[in-house]
Amino acid sequence: MFDRVLIANRGEVAVRIIRTLREMGITSIAAFSDADRDALFVMEADEAYRLGPAPAAESYLNIDAILSVAGESRAQAIAPGYGFLSENAEFARAVEESGRTFIGPSPEAIRVMGDKVEARRRAQEVGAPVVPGTEGPVQSVEEALDFAAKAGYPVAVKAAGGGGGRGIRVVTSAADLPQALKQARREAEAYFKNPEVYLERYFPNPRHVEIQVLGDRLGHLVHLGERDCSVQRRHQKLIEEAPSPAVDRALRERMGDMACQIARSVEYSSAGTVEFLLAQEGAFYFLEMNTRIQVEHPVTEMVTGVDLIREMVLAAAGEPVTVRKNLLDPDGHAIEIRVNAEDPLHDFSPTPATISGYRVPGGAGVRLDSGVYAGWTIPADYDSLMAKLIAWAPARDWARVRTLRALREFDIEGPASTVPFARAVLEHPAFVNGDLGTVFVGEHLRELEEMTRPYVRGGLGEPPRAPQRGEAREFEVDVDRRLYRVRVTETKTVEQRASMRSRPRAGGGSGSANEIVSPMHGTVIAVKVEEGAEVDQGQVAFVIEAMKMENEISTQRAGVVARVNVGQGETVEAGQVLATLR
Fold first, then answer.
1. What is the mean pLDDT of residues 153-175?
2. What is the spatial distance between Cα 489 and Cα 21, in angstroms, rounded to a whole number?
3. E strand intervals along 352-489
4. Where are the alpha helices (DSSP H) in 84-115?
5. CA 564, CA 578: separation in Å to the nearest integer?
6. Is the Cβ–Cβ distance between 574 and 518 less than 8 Å?
7. CATH class of residue range 4-103
8. Does the pLDDT of residue 39 top 70, yes or no?
9. How confident is the model at residue 448 (pLDDT cuts 50, 70, 90)?
10. What confidence score (pLDDT) does residue 502 get?
11. Does domain 342-453 have CATH number 3.40.50.2300?
12. Quick one: 488 exposed, middle or buried, by C-beta within 10 A (0-12, 13-18, 19+)?
């Protein structure tokens, strides 16, 4: 067994790995960027080493820098978590060539399954039904248009080396396909260092159901049942649960067996996930395999009692995994909420900010995997995930109610978060009934936004909380020997807070319709207007990347561009005037 393990990741997953390593008596080593110097995972690790500057390309995606830290820290193994280099075969191979162990599957398994086109071929070879798609990466717009014309719209443009919902564009017409290809390639290059994309037929409203597999280097390979990840927005998962409301024991056995066959085709040895689309009539189709631990792995842990990180460490060390048979009968039900620094009432815009207050939930059946704390400033350089709230109960509706109770206790001051939106989703009749598909959020977005408003700080139905600086007066009142504590403070409406977030900087203008204003801190990755050009109302003028998301900034009215104040590659602040109209 290893004595020292380097964690090549950050945030809540790094904290999650540290906890298991500590239980196993293994020294945990954090590698951090300049933006994460004061992060929770850095403080929790037994040792911590600087990796590089804030940009991921110079730190968490820098193989040479990670291996240098591994050498300096005398790490025997490297745990990649998810995202960043976790599914990079080159990285896994470099780790092995350095004389260390990669805590994950073999580089060859990562290579095959990481190439989504090759993974489809392998799945077909073992008899798995696959979503109709191109035979390989598309090389031209003409090739893409030809496939889409034959397959029929809508189609999905997907990153060949991607995962996690990144590098995906759904296209409903031929006119939109060229731009979608360009955007998907750009995002794929930025996130995975691989610009290749392929096309798949896009099903209108399937469920997203995935099977957790677990193998070791001694030939043991099992599955631990399924997770339902259908509650998504922009192909990003928001809420997951295990088991799926749509899967019975017989279907679980069929899907699980198919997942194991696919994993065996690459001699898989670690924790991994085989993802399927489950059609309304019950047919399922292979989607992709993620050769890493998943963000949503805690729901499987809650209904199986298995520590998946521990199993990955055991497998990497050449030890047998502790689970030797397929788990077909989950214990109870678990629901996971992804808590992101995003504003659900303003198109889920990222909200990197200082966390001025952080009150977390607890109680029976409640687990919180968190990477933040009060006083920490969320960097804009990485994705928006702050924490994951997981609740378990003997039955689904009990788990739902318990999750709602925990969400009500969860109080985050400073950045806007997705907590209020999650409360709305869990109270929506479709979720209550388990009647969900991947387009659920999109179809009910306006309704969900209205259900969200009362749960936003200062909204109806919420007790008053302290303002961001804690500027409040407190009184104690004794009535018939009962003590009441009263806090008097000013609260702001949703609209007032939104206005404050979008207010231009001093000297930047009034924020009127004559100005195109950035609603967030981020990097300009595209300028789509030029001085003197005529623009229509609602026309996309800039694209800003913030917290790993591309955000389109549009005009408020028609007019002529009088001045463009920023260029591609520049960093902008929330409220900064990007351009003016006349």
1. 83
2. 44
3. 357-359, 366-370, 385-393, 411-413, 473-479, 482-488
4. 89-97, 107-114
5. 6
6. yes
7. alpha beta
8. yes
9. very high
10. 38
11. no
12. exposed
CA gyration radius for the chain?
24
- pLDDT (mean) for 345-370: 94
Sequential DSSP letters for 139-175: -SHHHHHHHHHHH-S-EEEEETT--TTTTEEEE-SGG
Q: State pLDDT tens for residues 326-341.
A: 999 999 999 999 999 9
Q: pLDDT-derived band of residue 482, with 50, 70 and 90 as boundaries?
A: low
The dihedral built from the CA positions of residue 286, 288, 292 and 294, taken in this order, carries a sign that is negative
Strand order across the 549-554 sheet: 549-554, 540-546, 522-527, 571-572
Q: Provide the pLDDT for residue 163.
A: 64
Which tokens go with 566? 């920023």
Q: Is the pLDDT of residue 501 over 70?
A: no
Domain 502-581 grouped into CATH 2.40.50.100: yes
Number of other CB atoms surrounding residue 496 within 10 Å: 11
Tokens of 556: 């408020």
Neighbouring-strand partners of residue 560:
534
**pLDDT band at residue 574 under the 50/70/90 scheme:** confident
Within this chain, domains 4-103 and 105-131+205-331 share the same CATH topology = no
Which one has a higher pLDDT value, 131 or 419? 419
Cα 505 from Cα 502, distance rounded (Å): 9
**Which phi and psi (to 5°) does residue 385 adopt?**
-70, 120
Residues 6+ apart with CB under 8 A from 188: 159, 160, 161, 162, 166, 167, 194, 195, 196, 197
Fold (topology level) of 132-201:
Dna Ligase; domain 1 (3.30.1490)
Asked if 364 and 337 touch (Cβ cutoff 8 Å), the reply is: no
For residue 508, what pLDDT is reported? 33
Fold of the CATH domain 105-131+205-331? D-amino Acid Aminotransferase; Chain A, domain 1 (3.30.470)
Residue 476 pLDDT greater than 90, yes or no: no
Active site residues: 292
Q: Over the chain, what is the mean pLDDT? A: 90
Name 579's Cβ contacts closer than 8 Å, sequence gap at least 6: 515, 516, 529, 541, 542, 561, 562, 563, 564, 565, 566
Q: Give the chain's length.
A: 582
